[in-house]
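May I ask for a single protein's sequence together with how it folds?
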Amino acid sequence: MKKKIIYSIVSVALIMVSSGFALMSRTSDSNTEKFIVALDAGHGGDDPGNRGNGYKEKDIALKVVLAVGAALEKDDRFKVVYTRKTDKFIELHERGRIANKAKADLFVSIHCNSHRSQAYGTETFVLGLHANDENFNVAKKENSVILMEDNYEANYDGFDPNSPESIIGLTLMQEEYLDQSLILASYIEKRFTNTLKRKSRGVKQAGFVVLHQTYMPSVLVELGFLTNDKEGKYLNSKKGQDDMAKSIIKSIVDYKDSLDETYYVPEPKTPEVVTNDTIVKAVDEELYDGITFKVQIEAGSNDVVLDPKNFNGLDQLSKIQFGEVYKYYFGNTPNYNLIKELKDVAVAKGYTSCFVVAFKDNEIIPLSEALKTNTSSN
């Protein structure tokens, strides 16, 4: 592609980031390191999970986990760690310990939902305060398994799965991984919808003990409702389990690819000119047709007005609501090199949490997918 030099004047402002994007510590030769995925099949052993329509959540979750793991293990980039590979009861705190001991890069817990009605659809949760009673009830059902454990009060420091107040203390541990967890959750839900045409009930936050126990980006996937006649039959079938597994596999690979693009794409070397204390950089124009790049600077449950004074003077702002979470963005351009320069400015000013995201047709897509788009020049 023919490159054209343009000049951009970059205004700088300080942004207080309420929830960070925890950058991984990578070395120059870390491309050869395995990306460790901890897979957790919910329930097991004496804990069958929900038994909607006579199906067993523990069996369906295990079959999907084993299918996801088998596929990832065939990819040399991945190493898979399982919390269980058989019909065995594993305490919630032990599931987190397994993932932490393995120094996993990602934790994915698989479950199936239930309801008194014919409710249906997928949901993917990250750890956080539940915004409504429905989210709390989902978490309460999954957390109640700790009551089956010996000495559970000591294992969970007096945590009461029936108490909303107990959830507040859970959220602090995972806060630094919130953005990464939300990215994976978004990939999973959108692939369920776009590829499998399943109904998505969205990306949500709730107080799941199993997510609290982990020290890495973590999500809990509810594959659907076993209590729904049609969906329960689908999830109990080999086709349904294979479909859901393939969708989760692709989402994990997309997440890994996006991290690789974020960390390893080389930065262009461009000259700098200082005029009136403003840094002006010459930027190679690298346009991507149909793609918009932005720098994500913040995510949280608060709906903040897009006024520069609320972001310490930063302009070119936008926000998108994902389920119960608002994400805030800086910049808006099809020029990938320019958006990297904007990101560099933010990082240089202390915004190590910011990162580049890509949109196509107003939908967020993996950065690696965006960069495969044919480029054009003006």
User: Anything to note?
Assistant: The chain has twelve helices and 16 strands.
